[in-house]
Amino acid sequence: MSTPEIEQPRWYAIQCKGGESFRAAEHLTRQGYKLFHPVIDIERRQRGRLHTVREPLFPWYLFICLDRISDNWRPIRSTRGVLKLVAFGNTPIPIPDELIETLRQQADSVDEEGREHYFRPGDRIEITEGPFRDLEGTFLERKGEERVIVLLDILQREHQMQFGIGQVQRANRS
Question: What is the pLDDT of residues 50-97, one digit of tens each?
């Protein structure tokens, strides 16, 4: 006589309403569901200054771990921010645990790199303010949170110069 196989909780994708994945994640977490909502920190320039903004890695999606038998699936569809469970017909599609683990690892590395390497060594940088405005140089490194070191070619000599992070931008390639 064989014993029935016990089904383990599986991961499923939830499609969220536009721009509401954070809201959906918050409400589902309050209801006690286990979620994975990969986010990354992106540096955006606003009014000449860089600000770190947290954005979803998949803007319309998040992942939920559910047991087909013991979890109540009904409240999910009526949760604020949720559009639907991703399904084939009426059957939600399970996502392999390995894929979720890979996404977790990649989201972690993107998060670390996104903040740390907005500019990468060797990137062409344009100075946007001050006496060196409109000159291009090569990004060398960050100096704390608010400063960068750029290599400029001035009078046929290379000079390392410090600039505020708000004084530089990636050079446009034409």
Answer: 777 788 888 899 999 998 777 788 899 899 999 999 999 888 999 999
User: Which pLDDT belongs to residue 116?
Assistant: 38
Asked whether the whole model's pTM tops 0.70, one would answer no
**Pair 33, 88 in one domain:** yes
Is 3 inside any structural domain? no
Contacting residues for 45 by C-beta, under 8 A, at least 6 apart? 51, 166, 169
Q: What is the pLDDT of residues 88-98, one digit of tens each?
A: 988 899 999 99
Structural domain span for residue 128: 124-170
Same domain, 24 and 81: yes
Domain of 132: which CATH number? 2.30.30.30
Query: Long-range contacts of range 138-144, CB-CB < 8 Å, 24 or more positions apart?
Result: 139/168, 142/116
Query: Mind spelling out the 3-state secondary structure of 84-153?
Result: EECEECCEECEECHHHHHHHHHHHHHHHHHHHHCCCCCCCEEEECCCCCCCCEEEEEEEECCCEEEEEEE
Q: Which residue has the tokens 């969220």?
A: 16
Total domains, the chain:
2
Q: How far apart are CA 112 and CA 123, in angstroms?
A: 19
The CATH number given to whatever domain includes residue 40 is 3.30.70.940
